[in-house]
Write a structure and sequence with these properties.
single chain; 214 residues; Rossmann fold; five-stranded parallel β-sheet; 6 helices; 30% helix; 15% strand; binds zinc ion
């Protein structure tokens, strides 16, 4: 999943990559998703109750997530890693549905698919929780990664809405994104879910970028 070397079907990494994978270990900060030992966030409350991820967005995890944008098959191993942290951190939560951060139409057309959706569907398959596409983008915003962090919350403000015939009322939702940077995108998606009366929203990402929480 990291270097692309052909390996045994049942493994995710080769022997060289496995020990170098940037796992987030120890007690986690619910606000930013980093390990408490690394966290330097300001503990700002978000519309999601907590964020978890198996990895920091660096090294082998960065490789895997960049490849996921082109090749859906990378969702398999990443979903396994996400499910492991879900089982560790969210084991006492009964999720009613799993959904993902939507991609705007232009990006989806360019990519051919939404990598967060592929990851969310795989997590749903592995956990047995229903996957439901709930959110859509109302208009296209600039790419978040091109913007300084102070502009990111504003850039995504109001760009999402709920798909008409989908309901989240009274539901506990697991929201999936591929990479969490400032958390602005997840926060805005969680806001919409809560505006439509979701009971509570928890987030999971394939990886979390260090020191970027808004
Ligand atoms: Zn490798
Ligand atoms: Zn933190």
């Amino acid at each position: 999943m990291s270097c692309g070397k052909v390996i045994d079907m049942n493994s995710i990494y080769c022997d060289d990559c496995q020990p170098k994978m940037p796992y987030i270990t120890g007690e986690r900060c619910a606000f930013c998703g980093e390990s408490k030992a690394d966290c330097s966030c300001k503990k700002h409350k978000h519309n999601y109750s907590s964020i978890i991820a198996p990895f920091y967005y660096e090294g082998g995890a960065r490789n895997a997530l960049l490849k996921l944008k082109k090749y859906p098959v990378y969702a398999e191993g990443l979903a396994d890693e996400c499910v492991a942290v879900i089982e560790e951190c969210y084991s006492d939560i009964n999720f009613d549905l799993i959904t993902c951060v939507p991609l705007n139409k232009r990006r989806k057309r360019l990519n051919g698919f939404n990598q967060s959706e592929i990851l969310a569907k795989k997590i749903a398959e592995k956990t047995g929780v229903e996957y439901s596409p709930v959110l859509l983008t109302v208009f296209d915003a600039k790419s978040q990664h091109k913007l300084k962090s102070i502009f990111r919350a504003g850039n995504v403000r109001g760009i999402y809405d709920k798909i008409k015939d989908r309901s989240v009322e009274g539901k506990t939702v697991l929201l999936v994104d591929d990479i969490k940077t400032s958390g602005a995108t997840l926060n805005e998606c969680a806001l919409i879910l809560r505006l439509y009366d979701a009971e509570e929203v928890f987030a999971v990402a394939g990886a979390v970028a260090r020191g970027k929480d808004m």
